[in-house]
């Protein structure tokens, strides 16, 4: 939710690094974008409603020559996902104060902004936007008595809420102050240049040496490096880490969209999720990051898997896996609901927090509540060093590589795979036999190859998508372990193709929603050949009796199921545990092609942002 970039150099113009950085972060929000550039003449702000490409155009008009751009070697930039105030140019960041001498960008929410604003207005500050952020710019200016870092610390101490900020001031040439609480911020240390960003994807083009700020950190950034402090001005030491992936991982690599690239990356991504984590001789999984002894695992009475959106759907698959393989009562929980429903949890509960980004505010809040209540919390995150991963303190990294498309794809299959390995490990300390464990180890090893087989159906799936791309309503049905896959298929097509879609338990359709079926409402039925399929076939017949066309995701060679549907898409036959993974890949491709044919903005759907860092 909002992306921040900062750049500081002695000689190099900040314009290009800032705009390039914003392009990398655009997945975090794309309502408006802006930059503030510092030179000896003062601070220049260029911002406007719309995407980074439009900002780039405007910036090139305003600073038309190399010479003009060269004088700005320090700057901050922002791409916005609106929370307070409409997505207009005036509400776009950076916000300014001190007669244009100070500029600030912010990611997060200032909860007490109305009170702060009233106080500042009484002191004569003039506000031009409806944002919470502008308050912070004025506060910093008000506290500035000659020491920029301490002015920002003072201001931040007044703030209730969350922030990742970067600010520059004409009164402090060459200095940039950045700080974080609840919104991520990473500092890249280059050669005589320093880059700041909401995530490393905006940094890797310049350096791989990064420092992840922690909540409560404030840092003074110059071209020569960074000094980090607590808000009380005590020096803080943070490790410099090396990013282990390169630019190629965050570029489209010949695909039209990141979504398609990430769908096709799944065999490799899953290989990375699995690598080194299977113990053939013990017929179990090795998940060292969980840091759980067999005694810990045996002590759990209940598991709750928390997450939002796609991660919640993965957690719903996890319920089936944990209950089937480990006899462990497990509940998938929407993170925000979980946090506020006074969860009855304690030391004998294992809370598994699922999050691709590791920054989702609702999930993070639920993690904190669970830790406070004494439960044992593990994070299953993709982004290394993310807040949830760090605060949980133990867990499994997905290693699926950067996911740029707002619609999550490879993170889902990696999450389900990681949950399957977790359930295997837990099961083997409880009731799961050696031979069952060995069977699962073999199944898990085959997942990347099986997903590769589904990808070969891309053309067929595009053909089926073309037949149904004009439908405005769709249903997705599945039962048992395939029910969450139905929800995920519906979510994907809603997000990227703007088709109204509902996921239902196959048996539930006849209890009401069937009233909506007609020849214009396609039903996508999850018919992989696993227990329960015959009953879903029965539900398919009910749909067809109401003239609804049915698309079946069937197991290879299962002509008996395929003959009941109008259009079959075949996926490899697998065990029940792996069926959600192969089936969902077909639904990801289906949603992608429908969206493409409907001319949608696939990687950046309207109203969305990749990581939702507000509650
Ligand atoms: O980063 P997270 O996994 O915590 O994100 C959770 C959801 O916001 C995310 O899955 C969202 O639903 C995606 N847009 C789904 O494609």
What fraction of residues sit in β-strands?
15-25%
Largest sheet, order of strands side by side?
3-2-4-1-10-9-11-14
* Global shape: globular
Query: How far apart are the termini?
Result: 11 Å
- Indicate the multimeric state: single chain
Helix content: 25-40%
The tally of strands reads 26
Query: What about the largest sheet?
Result: 8 strands, antiparallel
Structural class: alpha/beta
Describe the overall structure.
Helix content is 37%, strand content 22%. It is an alpha/beta fold and 615 residues long. The chain has an eight-stranded antiparallel sheet with strand order 3-2-4-1-10-9-11-14, covered by helices on one side. Strands 5-6-7-8-12-13 form a six-stranded antiparallel sheet. A five-stranded parallel sheet has the order 18-17-19-20-21, sandwiched between helices. Strand 17 (302-307), helix 10 (309-326) and strand 18 (330-334) form a beta-alpha-beta unit. Helix 10 runs parallel beside helix 14 (410-429), helix 15 (434-455) runs parallel beside helix 20 and helix 17 (483-497) runs parallel beside helix 20 (579-597). The chain is globular, with a radius of gyration of 25 Å. The protein binds 5-amino-5-deoxy-1-O-phosphono-D-mannitol. The site of 5-amino-5-deoxy-1-O-phosphono-D-mannitol has 16 residues, from helix 10. The site of 5-amino-5-deoxy-1-O-phosphono-D-mannitol (M6R) has 16 residues, from helix 10.
Q: What's the structural blueprint in terms of helices and strands?
A:
Blueprint: E1 3-9, H1 15-25, E2 32-39, E3 42-49, H2 52-62, H3 66-70, E4 74-80, E5 95-97, E6 102-107, H4 113-122, H5 133-143, H6 148-157, E7 163-169, E8 176-181, E9 186-189, E10 193-197, E11 209-212, E12 217-222, E13 225-230, E14 241-242, H7 258-264, H8 266-274, E15 278-279, E16 284-285, H9 294-299, E17 302-307, H10 309-326, E18 330-334, H11 335-340, E19 349-355, H12 361-372, E20 376-381, H13 387-392, E21 395-397, H14 410-429, H15 434-455, H16 458-468, E22 473-478, H17 483-497, E23 500-505, E24 523-527, H18 533-545, E25 550-555, H19 559-562, E26 567-571, H20 579-597
Parallel strand pairs: 17-18, 17-19, 19-20, 20-21, 22-23, 22-24, 24-25, 25-26
Antiparallel strand pairs: 1-4, 1-10, 2-3, 2-4, 5-6, 6-7, 7-8, 8-12, 9-10, 9-11, 11-14, 12-13, 15-16
